[in-house]
Write a structure and sequence with these properties.
about 270 residues, four-stranded mixed β-sheet, alpha+beta, 10 helices, globular, disordered N terminus
């Protein structure tokens, strides 16, 4: 039997990704500007963080692009976009501490968001998409790093919507697509194989899990869900059993149980 073909790494359009980050941040900025002090004090599903701290963290995820562009470019890219979920965990405590400190230091969220948006636009102006940036864990191409920002923005927009009843911050289509695809591709890397097909219409379809490879016809093992449910499963916001019980995901076949593979990041 000939060896299986190596899967080609997905590429992202630099212009669309930059626009997606700016647009999703704009959606969040508009929503945060309308929050009352009572709403900003509400709890979130992120441990002890309040909505105010979550809002500050959202600004920090975008400001990270500006900070990375200020640092000297690394000599080489040691990380790809698919490494992102596996290299963030060691920085969780530092990020949490930094978020609390920044929230205390920046009570004016409007000013913080305006400054962050301007810094991002200024930093990206005239910068080549292939430019390498230092992101703490290593060197990464700027476009790849911007893709990771869509993950942070979409995931935490969902956290914000969950914390504030009726808020309904919209999701930019390109940002939601990039986030969905990156997390789907991460699953395929974590569980390589072709026995199970994971469908997240309209944005992604990936093959994963060891076992008999499907070649034609209806796959014997299929998982299908919508983008936001997939993102919640992949980031630990929703348990596999709960998603099945609430009919938010369909899974057919003996290799369609992804419970041991999720979450991909927290």
């Amino acid at each position: 039997m000939p060896p299986a073909k190596k899967k080609r790494t997905r590429t992202y359009d630099p212009v669309k990704i930059r626009t997606a980050v700016e647009t999703q941040f704009g959606h969040v900025r508009a929503a945060v500007a309308g929050l009352t002090d009572e709403q900003l004090a509400l709890p979130t599903r992120l441990g002890e963080w309040t909505v105010r701290e979550l809002a500050v963290h959202l600004a920090m995820t975008v400001a990270a692009v500006s900070r990375a562009l200020e640092r000297e470019a690394p000599a080489s890219a040691t990380l790809t976009v698919l490494d992102y979920t596996s290299v963030t965990a060691p920085f969780a405590d530092a990020i949490a501490t930094g978020t609390r400190e920044k929230a205390a230091a920046h009570p004016d969220l409007d000013a913080l968001y305006a400054h962050t948006a301007k810094e991002l636009a200024d930093g990206l102006a005239g910068t080549l998409p292939a430019r390498l940036v230092d992101i703490r864990a290593g060197g990464m191409a700027l476009t790849d790093f911007l893709v990771t920002r869509t993950v942070e923005l979409v995931v935490h927009t969902d956290d914000l919507n969950a914390a504030v009843p009726g808020l309904e911050v919209p999701y930019d289509r390109q940002a939601l697509a990039a986030c969905t695809r990156l997390l789907a591709d991460t699953l395929a890397v974590k569980a390589p194989g072709g026995a199970t097909e994971v469908r997240i219409p309209p944005y992604a379809v990936v093959q994963c899990v060891e076992g008999p490879r499907h070649t034609r016809g209806t796959p014997p093992n299929v998982v299908e869900t919508d983008p936001l449910t997939w993102i919640r499963l992949a980031t630990g916001r929703l348990a596999w059993a709960d998603a099945l019980g609430e009919a938010k995901v369909s899974a057919s076949g003996e290799r369609a149980d992804l419970s041991t593979l999720l979450p991909l990041m927290a």
